[in-house]
UniProtKB/TrEMBL annotation:
<dbReference type="Pfam" id="PF13561">
    <property type="entry name" value="adh_short_C2"/>
</dbReference>
<keyword id="KW-0560">Oxidoreductase</keyword>
<protein>
    <submittedName>
        <fullName>Glucose 1-dehydrogenase</fullName>
        <ecNumber>1.1.1.47</ecNumber>
    </submittedName>
</protein>
<dbReference type="InterPro" id="IPR020904">
    <property type="entry name" value="Sc_DH/Rdtase_CS"/>
</dbReference>
<dbReference type="InterPro" id="IPR002347">
    <property type="entry name" value="SDR_fam"/>
</dbReference>
<dbReference type="GO" id="GO:0047936">
    <property type="term" value="F:glucose 1-dehydrogenase [NAD(P)+] activity"/>
</dbReference>
<comment type="similarity">
    <text>Belongs to the short-chain dehydrogenases/reductases (SDR) family.</text>
</comment>
<dbReference type="InterPro" id="IPR036291">
    <property type="entry name" value="NAD(P)-bd_dom_sf"/>
</dbReference>
Length: 246
């Protein structure tokens, strides 16, 4: 995958950093974006010269067309978009405010749409490209206290299929990865304060352990590579069996 250019939203930390790391290891020029410049700079330091950073809050939808245009202008192409940036609010259903619901939808769904639309315009001109969305177990089964997150991730999976049927005939593959429970700041926040939830996670994961961020990086590198050239429209669980667990 040398000579390819990838953009990973939220690539400065957690799964996004592992995704960027896997793409860089495959020789891909990888741009990571996020809100926190220091976090991005630290990631760039660890990933080396194939990694480039851009500060962007993906909820600023109006900024996305110029953001993507600048990347095309600077790097000449965009071959892979990984819509990884995401947030979660854990709160009882009746206590979630409209603003909180909207914030999660804005980050996890609206931004994915806007980013994909702009990337697809460039990929259509190239006649090739690959978009990978990051979903969740919250789209495979019901999880309490994450209503907006569940709604956003379920929508991502539908959007993946709709984009795949429209864009695949034109040379753009669109796929989705549904990570199980993977070590990151997000899961630490969701599970460490809730031993009952943590026990449930392990109880229904046949492999009996949480995943590592690299597990998601490897799956993205595969789906982005020529080895996956006949794969489009799938939702690939990377979950130690959690989604099919009893
Ligand atoms: P983290 O909270 O560790 O990282 C989230 C990343 O998203 C950060 O780099 C953050 O960067 C970025 N981000 C958040 N909001 C914005 C924004 N408005 N604009 C730009 N960047 C933003 O989460 P994870 O690594 O755990 O999660 C990554 C993705 O994987 C998410 O989509 C999540 O839903 C999904 N996922 C994770 C699972 C897990 O087990 N960890 C399980 C299932 C799905 P910054 O702060 O610099 O903006």
């Amino acid at each position: 995958m040398a000579q390819q250019v990838a953009l990973v939203t939220g690539g400065g930390a957690g799964l996004g950093l592992a995704i960027a790391s896997a793409l860089v290891a495959a020789g891909t020029t990888t741009i990571i974006c996020g809100r926190n410049e220091e976090k991005l700079a630290a990631a760039q330091q660890s990933l080396g010269p194939l990694c480039h950073t851009r500060v962007l809050d993906v909820t600023q939808l109006a900024a996305i067309p110029a953001f993507v245009a600048e990347i095309i202008e600077t790097f000449g192409q965009l071959d892979v978009l990984v819509n990884n940036a995401g947030i979660n609010y854990k709160k009882p259903f009746t206590e979630v405010t409209d603003e909180e619901f909207q914030m999660v939808m804005s980050t996890n769904l609206n931004a994915v749409f806007a980013m994909s639309r702009e990337a697809a315009k460039a990929m259509l001109q190239q006649g090739s490209g690959c978009i990978i969305n990051i979903s969740s177990m919250a789209a495979q089964y019901g999880i309490p206290k994450v209503i907006a997150y569940s709604a956003s991730k379920t929508a991502i999976e539908g959007m993946t299929r709709a984009m795949a049927v429209e864009l695949s005939p034109l040379g753009i593959r669109v796929n989705c990865i549904a990570p199980g429970f993977i070590y990151s700041d997000m899961t630490a926040a969701a599970l460490n304060s809730d031993p009952e939830r943590k026990a449930k996670v392990f109880g229904r994961t046949p492999m009996g352990k949480m995943g590592q961020p690299q597990d998601i990086g490897s799956a993205v590198a595969f789906l982005a590579s020529p080895a996956a050239s006949y794969i489009t429209g799938v939702v690939l669980p990377v979950d130690g069996g959690n989604s099919i667990g009893f």
